[in-house]
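Revision sheet: structure tokens.
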Amino acid sequence: MPAKRQSSRTLASDVFEQLRGDILECRLTPGTRLRFKDLRARYGSGLSPIREALMRLAADDLVILEDHKGFRVAPVSQEELVDLAMTWFELEALGIRQSIKKGDDRWAANIRARFRELSKHPMRTPRGALDPGWEPRNMAFHESLYAACGSASLMRFCRILSERFSRYRRLWARDLARKRNIGKEHEDLCRAVLDRDTPAAIAALRKHRETTIQDLLAAWNEDPEFSKILADIRRSV
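Predicted:
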């Protein structure tokens, strides 16, 4: 019996990771109806592991459960885009401030290593999509900046926000970085943190995040009122 339970738990975890990856990487697009029959065929799994995975993803706000309609992939919205990015910025900024105070030589060396890895990897594939190897390197670089903050909770929440925001980057990757040098933005941020120049580091991070928001909203190109919303948010932080 214990071995059987362990096998069942492993299967449920496997289904969860596969389904979660398909959502985050937009292989299952926002709003997609998640029917049990389709998911069983897609993942070669029984009903119980799929139901457990869906409930876990609903708790992470990646899946929504609608009364009498079942599950579907969480939709995207301009409001969520701005909210995720600016909340993420606030937490990152706090983590960077603390890391600049506490960070040692090992912390600084790790930042340099993660920056080199990111700099060497292309952001896009030849077809213009977000390169699958770039996103984890980008996340690792940003995490290295505040890795010495001393707060496991801050690190965890930053990762959650980063992963949820990654859906927006993947959806509009072709429209990002057309008139900007993201590599230079990362370099400026890296240098300011390593110089332990807190004001410069926070300013570089703010510019980096706000430019991404503006690019994505421009790509979305649906609601001109968002320029006012963004300005209001900028005044409040």
